[in-house]
Amino acid sequence: DLGFMEVSNPVIVDENEIYKQYGPEAPIILDRCYYLAALPRPDIGLSRGKCEEIEEFGLKLTNEKIDGLQKVLRAYKRGDIESDDLVEKFSGVLDVSDMTAMLIVSKVFPEFTSLRPEPTRLTLRSHITSAWFLTLQACQHELEMPMKLFTVDVRFRREQREDATHLRVHHGASCVIMSDEIDVKIGEEMTKLVLKPLGFEKFRFVKKKVTSKYYAPETEYEGYIHHEGMSRWIEVADYGLYSPIALARYDLEHPVLNLGIGV
Predict the structure, then answer these.
(1) Total-model pTM
(2) Sequence-distant (≥ 6) Cβ neighbours of residue 216 within 8 angstroms
(3) Could you report the per-residue pLDDT of 135-175, keeping only the tens digit for each?
(4) How far apart are CA 245 and CA 199, in angstroms?
(5) 130: helix, coil or strand?
(6) 222 close to 204: Cβ distance less than 8 angstroms
(7) DSSP 243
(8) Are 105 and 89 in contact (CB under 8 A)?
């Protein structure tokens, strides 16, 4: 209703993006992120011993079947065969049931069961801002100005403990406005425009003493609401103007206001 376009932002973010946005503060921010790990694809050969083990399942390996298995294993290593298709490929090449193929994979090829995850530099986003820079970079010459985008999606945060206001997986609503005419005061207006239709009337906005490094100094504010039945003011919103330094690292040519609301 407010003229924003809904978008889907990246969920997986390389840690390098956090360094570009936060600078020296990045290691502290990354402490709250979950890193992704993945199982390496094993380089598996088809030795004479493995062929003999396969034949113990009651089938005769012909040269054609051996050649077919070698091709399957090489294709799997290259990533041409998806993991959930591997048993089906074994079954087809060996002309056996999928149950027998599964037993062969698990008994004859321990390389699969001995795999251990290897960490990557990829993180699950802990704040939607980390993905906004990438989306804005992709869209700034594709969409008309002022650019107004929003998303409602999940965030993943490595909280040391969970309680009513600190969840490891939770939803956030976030919007950005890219415009040469933007002013940080619009963040307060936007917060009210979004939350008043939900029944909230009492608001309080406080400038943060210490600004996150991806915001311009002294432009970050927290928004609080108070509602009937609440025992205290609850922080629900955070907004500010992106730092010119962070914008420049993504070749973003216009100022950007970001508002985030914890759903």
Answers:
(1) 0.79
(2) 240, 241, 242, 243, 244
(3) 999 999 999 999 999 999 999 999 989 988 789 999 999 99
(4) 38
(5) helix
(6) no
(7) P
(8) no
